[in-house]
Write a structure and sequence with these properties.
mainly alpha, about 425 residues
Length: about 425
């Protein structure tokens, strides 16, 4: 393990600081915006803008990297993210925040793709599964850790925004000081919606609905907490807990879906998420412990859906199409996260903060219905012919780019980096 991780340890440390900044800044903006009296629509647009920038970054950031190189592009992207984090603390203006959030999303996609490309460069076929697991775990720890820093400061001051800038600058150091060889060129991203739907209709529709629900809650959950009278500390616990329990739930849910029809598992989990959301929308509990309990139940079910839907799509795909199918679904999830906050903001304004869960309940209810319907039309792949479910925690928005999928053990074999380096030296 030590031999496999040492070459990428510095890069993983930089990744931790990057996602600490992302988690802190992503929660700080809606908390501060709510305190400033920004409307639900504007606060929802913060998530829509970020997700739009992220999806566009998956398509266009590789062109920037090809033009100026990995190190310069990474430094440029992360410098912009740091500058924007500081500017949002200095210039507290809702219109500037929405516009700048799109740039942050674009640059986050660029930095993530470069990190993932660098990890691919240093990984071997034997170690990439371990490196992939560590990378996903670090992104989860970073986001949750960043969110939990919100109660330690005063969101109405610039201090927490300064900490965001510090984390981003620290994230830049490992790659800029690294002497490792430049990674291979980033892969171009393609999105073939027709072939994705033909391969697995339930995965196509399901991923879109999951993105809508997760995007709505992930962006406006903090706004809901503020409107419901929760303290910033309680809001941070609530938002972090939904991600944490969702990550834990993926293991039993994934194991169950390996032995039964994955569509039944999708229907059951989305049904639980819909039920928890309906209870929250109708009962509107004001006791913090009861509220967080139901939100945790919702997060456990809702955040376990994505990897099962991806695994179901790959059950019907050819083995060499894993990266293409999973990458397309990841971008489709990003499109859903663009739609979710756009719908959630106006609904909350019209019907109150608890109506946020009405939006997620509709999305999960539709997923339950469609999963049961599709299970009647197509036989499931036999359990012995399926691949394992990838344990990839995905919350409010996509945290990985299609570039990361090359690290998954089911992807095509990697080139032997060590042999390539020896061959170049001999020449």
């Amino acid at each position: 393990m030590r031999r496999n991780l040492l070459p990428v340890l510095a890069l993983l440390l930089g990744t931790l600081f990057l996602f600490l900044g992302n988690g802190l800044h992503g929660l700080l903006l809606p908390v501060r915006g709510s305190a400033e009296g920004y409307s639900n629509e504007v606060l929802g647009l913060l998530g829509t803008s970020w997700a739009t920038g992220f999806v566009l970054g998956c398509f266009f950031a590789p062109k920037v990297v090809m033009r100026v190189g990995h190190v310069r592009a990474f430094s440029s992207f992360i410098s912009l993210i740091a500058i924007i984090a500081l500017l949002t603390g200095i210039q507290v203006d809702q219109f500037w925040w929405v516009a700048l959030r799109a740039v942050t999303g674009f640059c986050t996609a660029g930095t993530s793709m470069i990190i993932e490309s660098w990890l691919n460069e240093r990984a071997t076929n034997e170690s990439r599964g371990m490196i992939f697991s560590f990378y996903i775990s670090i992104t989860l720890i970073g986001v949750v850790g960043g969110q939990m820093l919100v109660p330690l400061g005063d969101p109405s001051t610039t201090v927490l925004f300064m900490f965001c800038g510090i984390f981003y600058c620290l994230a830049m150091l490992p790659t800029t000081l690294s002497t490792a060889a430049t990674p291979q060129p980033l892969k171009s991203v393609s999105l073939d919606l027709r072939s994705l739907y033909r391969n697995s209709p339930i995965s196509f529709v399901g991923i879109l609905l999951i993105g809508i629900a997760n995007g709505a809650y992930g962006t406006l959950g903090a706004v809901f907490g503020a409107r419901a009278g929760l303290s910033s500390g309680t809001i941070a616990v609530m938002m972090s807990l939904t991600i944490f329990v969702g990550a834990i739930m993926q293991f039993p849910a994934g194991k169950l879906s390996d032995t039964t029809d994955r569509r039944y598992v999708l229907a059951a989990l989305s049904g639980v998420a819909a039920l928890a959301a309906v209870i929250l929308a109708l009962v509107q509990p004001h006791d913090a412990y009861v509220l967080i309990g139901f939100v945790a139940l919702y997060g456990a079910a809702a955040n376990a859906l994505y990897p099962i839907a991806v695994a179901h799509a790959n059950d019907f795909a050819r083995s060499d199409d894993f990266v293409k199918v999973s990458g397309g679904l990841l971008l489709l999830f990003g499109i859903g996260t663009i739609i979710g906050p756009t719908l959630g903001g106006p609904v909350m304004t019209r019907l109150g903060p608890y109506a946020l869960f009405a939006v997620t309940a509709v999305s999960h209810g539709l997923l339950t219905t469609y999963a049961i319907y599709r299970s009647r039309l197509r036989a499931a792949v036999p359990a012995e012919e399926r691949d394992y479910v990838p344990k990839i925690p995905v919350g409010a928005a996509p945290t990985s780019t299609p570039e990361s999928l090359s690290l998954d053990p089911r992807a095509a074999p990697l080139a032997d980096v060590a042999e390539a380096e020896v061959a170049s030296q001999e020449e």
